[in-house]
Structures are given as structure tokens and as C-alpha cells.
Amino acid sequence: MQHELQGIQAFVKIAEIGCFTRASQFLHISQPALTRRIKKLEESLGTTLFERSTRRVKLTAVGRDFLPKAKNLLDFYESSILSIKEMATHQTGVITLSCLPTAAFYFLPAVIRDYNEHYPNIRIRILEHSANDCLEAVLNGDADFGINMINITHPYIEFTPLVNEPFVLACKRDHELAKKSLVMWEDLAGLRLIGVRKSSGNRLL
Questions:
Q1: What is the structure's pLDDT at 170?
Q2: To 5 degrees, how large is the angle CA 73–CA 76–CA 80?
Q3: How far is residue 32's CA from residue 40's CA, in Å, rounded to a whole number?
Q4: Residue 201 to residue 141: CA distance in whole angstroms
Q5: b vs e for 70-80, b when ≥16 Cβ sit within 10 Å of the residue's Cβ?
Q6: CA triple 177-197-157, angle to 5 deg
Q7: 136 neighbors 155 (Cβ within 8 angstroms)
Q8: pLDDT truncated to tens, each residue of the chain (205 aa)?
Q9: What is the 3-state secondary structure (H, E, C) of the chain?
Q10: For residue 99, what are the β-bridge partners?
Q11: What's the pTM?
């Protein structure tokens, strides 16, 4: 990633100055090193970005199209780094958390209280979502992270187990299953049950 950013930075500077020699001086690297960065970038993109001659350096059609995109990438990278450094230095900002209603009700209040004692200037925004909506919020970038059920997964999201919660059966004391210390799923086959809505992660599990 670092090499790609260096290549993009070199590409933008050469395009702005129009000269490898002066661009290398501006970036404080040797001209051969600058040439290697551009070569690696072109190899990774699978195309040529510059037309080179002894007198001048000219952008190819692909290079002209890539230039504004490259500038936007560098601007985004620099602004993101500055934002992170500012948050780390001043400990200010907003964290958005998507979570299941049960998590929001049962154990988040105590966690947020402890967190605010250490980081009083960071606000926490909570989005109460179903299991599927919680995952989508993290995937779409609407939430920084989420608290969800373990069976709702995605290859682009990293999961860390937090707590284990058992399923329990609630029934009348005189029900035949009330005598069991452990109820298996197959014990419930054929029984009429009060369940939860179809969009619930518990229902899917």
C-alpha cells in the first residue's frame, strides 16, 4: 500500500511539473528511484501513464484520465490521516455503533459509562438495528462497527466474539419439558411456540 501511494504521489508530481528530474528533486529522491516508482505503478495498473522523449514528458490518454482520480486519492489519504491524528491527539470525535436491541439494552450502558470516563470528549451514536441491517450498516460505512449475532457473517467484515448467550425455553411449570434440565431443539418439534419476528437474527438462528 505504501509503495502504491508513493507511486501515485510521484505520478501526480511529474504530471504537474512535466519533468522527471525536477520532480525527483521536489520529492527528495533520486531520478532512478522515481523512475522505478512510476514503472511499478504502471505495472500494477497494466498500462502506460507517460509518453517519454529526450525533450519532454507527456501524459497518455489513460494518464490524463487517471490524474484527477490520483489527486483525489492523495487528498482523501492526507485528510484521513490528519483526521485520525487529530482524534488521537485531542480525543474528540463521534463513533457510530450499530447493534441489536438486546445489546443496546443489556450491556451497552455500562460499557459506554466506562468508555466515557476515559474519553469524555468522544460521543457515541447508537443505531438500533436488526441482525441483517446491522451488518449492512457496517458494510455501507454507516457505522464504524457493530454488535451482532455470530451467524450473520460476511467475508469483508472481521468478527470478534464478545459474549455467549444461551437460548432458553419459557414454559408453564406443569409442562412436560419443565422437568428437563436441558431442552434440545428436537424436543420442540411439533409443539406450538411463541417466536419472534421473521427479520430477527434469533429467528434465523
A1: 92
A2: 140
A3: 12
A4: 21
A5: beebbeeeeee
A6: 105
A7: no
A8: 555 788 899 999 999 888 888 888 888 889 899 999 999 999 988 999 998 876 778 899 999 999 999 998 888 888 788 777 766 666 778 899 999 888 888 888 888 899 888 888 888 999 998 888 888 899 888 999 999 887 777 888 888 888 887 888 999 999 999 999 999 999 999 999 888 877 776 777 7
A9: CHHHHHHHHHHHHHHHHCCHHHHHHHHCCCHHHHHHHHHHHHHHHCCCCEEECCCCEEECHHHHHHHHHHHHHHHHHHHHHHHHHHHHHHCCEEEEEEECHHHHHHCHHHHHHHHHHHCCCEEEEEEECCHHHHHHHHHHCCCCEEECCCCCCCCCCCCCCCCCCCCCCCCCCCCHHHHCCCCCHHHHCCCCCCCCCCCCHHHHC
A10: 128, 147
A11: 0.46
Q: Enter the C-alpha cell of residue 151.
A: 451467524
**Distance, CA of 56 to CA of 123 (rounded, Å):** 53
Q: Which residues contact 124 (CB under 8 A, 6 or more apart)?
A: 94, 95, 96, 97, 112, 115, 116
Q: Which three cell numbers stand for residue 62?
A: 489513460
Compute the distance between CA of residue 61 and CA of residue 14 in angstroms, rounded to an integer: 15
